[in-house]
Amino acid sequence: MIEVKVALARAEAFAAKHPRALTGTVVGLLTGFAITAFGIAPLAPDARDLPQRMLAETVQTNDLEAQLTALAEHQIGLSRSELTRSSDTVESLFKRLGAFDPVAAQFLRNDPLARRTLQGRAGKSVQLTADASGVVQAMVVRFPAEKSEQQATHFSRLSITREGKAFVSKLETAPLQAQIRLGSGTIQSSLFAATDEARIPDAIASQMADMFSGEIDFHRELRKGDRFSVVYESLTADGESINWDSAAGRVIAGEFVNNGRSHSAVWFKDSVTGKGNFYAFDGQSKRRAFLASPMEFSRITSGFAMRFHPILQSWRQHLGVDYGAPTGTPVRTVGDGAVEFAGWQNGFGNVVHVRHNGDRTTVYAHLSRIDVKKGQRIEQGQKIGAVGATGWATGPHLHFEFRVKGSHQDPRVIARASEAVTLPNYARNQFRQTVASVQSQLSVAQSMDGGVSGAD
After folding, report:
1. Where does the record place the M23ase beta-sheet core domain (predicted)?
2. Domain spans of the chain?
3. Which helix (H) or strand (E) holds 5?
4. Which of 252, 341, 372, 397 is surrounded by the most beta carbons within 10 Å?
5. CATH T-level fold of 299-417
């Protein structure tokens, strides 16, 4: 009994000296100190007169003072994550992360790797671990791979760790990992508003619009109450979800109910050619010779019709389609072909002409940047430049034209009427197996309208 009183006195002294420690743990430890255990043979109804025997045993524990000392030395780690901002300083970043460490801040300002990483583009993921006093123990910064050819498959990781009183930094490249996610939603105002509500990335929403663009005009035919379900890949860096334009996941399968009519599609990769494409569940290709739009998804500001020219101040036939988008938004070619012209051309400013099969040509004007050269072979969907306001333009937008034997045509009509890519006969058995596996996933997605779930 005296030993128990001494132990309790030591515990109270420890609690007074270390108010932040988990003193509840000490109480748990004391329950095993100098305890006498009793075991009594069970009494069955027909064994009441059997002899009974009492056993007593003292349970030995480790020295209590050693346990209290070890507990006092234990450091509690606090971990928080943030995204960098263009206006960030080391101090403002630390403040959002709940850290106060002048030594760590000085290291970040002086270390070449840390300075170059944190002063670069905004939106990098920062994970910081500090002790209970806010002293930094470790930092990890994750961002798109520095080499452009690796950005779709890898990420860069800057690790900063405390070693004694100093810090050490290390920069490395690691592969991105894919997780399968399910999502669904209902259109109330726009596609992106619905996908935002369902926490589906914009890149996935753009792919879904592309997937069904041959059947649904997302600029004109979207209806309130339309529903969609999607199965897609979400890329992660060290298990952390990312939302980088350079490393977007891929849509695996989707269903869109537009104005009461259901449209379904699945991504299928040909094991022989190595090329992938979207197909309806009956094997009909969703890909046509020409995409419906030279941008993943944007707002049409002027269609193929008569309009009042904002610069010439007169009514004229608009021989193309204008897409409003911020400067720098990527522009892609709508079909396979060769670059016929790439450079400056009067009112078009920076412009690219692409020659396709069948005496067909597409024109991409007012670009802020040109990423291709004359004579270069390019594939459907390849980036050829970026939106700008060069030439005769009142603001940033893309002017897009489609010409057949020199005659201007409505690009959206041409895209819908263009020939489809067919599924090879040798791939049909494998395709049917793929469809069967995604149909069950889409059924689960449909039951969670307005949400998203993930699975490894």
Report:
1. 317-411
2. 1-35+57-74, 78-175, 178-287+423-455, 299-417
3. helix 2-17
4. 397
5. Glucose Permease (Domain IIA) (2.70.70)
CA distance 384 to 378: 9
Placement of tokens 């920069």 in the chain = 171
For 10-54, what is each residue's pLDDT tens digit?
555 555 555 444 444 443 443 443 333 333 344 445 555 666 677
78-175 sits in which CATH class?
Answer: alpha beta
**CB–CB of 354/338 below 8 Å?**
yes
Output the six-digit token pair for 438. Answer: 């995604």
Q: Which residue has the tokens 């999502």?
A: 183
Backbone angles phi, psi at 107, to 5 degrees: -65, -45
DSSP characters over 230-286: EEEEEEEETTEE---GGG---EEEEEEEETTEEEEEEEEE-TTT--EEEE-TTS-BS
- 8 Å CB contact between 271 and 189: no
Considering only the top CATH level, what class is 178-287+423-455?
alpha beta
Beta bridge partners of 370: 385
Q: Looking at residue 27, what is its pLDDT?
A: 39
**Pairing mode, if any, of strands 261-269 and 276-279?**
antiparallel
Q: How far is CA 109 from CA 84, 101, 163, in A?
A: 15, 13, 18
78-175 and 299-417: identical CATH topology: no
Confidence of residue 214 (pLDDT cuts 50, 70, 90): confident
- Please tell me the distance from the alpha carbon of residue 268 to that of residue 277, in angstroms, as a whole number: 6
DSSP 8-state class, residue 148: G
CB 53 within 8 A of CB 41: yes
Report the alpha-carbon distance of residue 335 to residue 378 in Å, rounded: 8
User: Which range scores top for mean pLDDT: 203-207, 217-221, 413-417?
Assistant: 203-207
For residues 395 and 307, give the distance between their C-alpha atoms in angstroms, rounded to a whole number. 17
- Residues contacting residue 155 through CB under 8 Å, at least 6 positions apart: 142, 143, 144, 145, 173, 174, 176, 237, 242, 247
String of DSSP letters for 277-316? EEE-TTS-BS-BSS-S-SSSS-EEEE-SSEEE-TTT-SEE
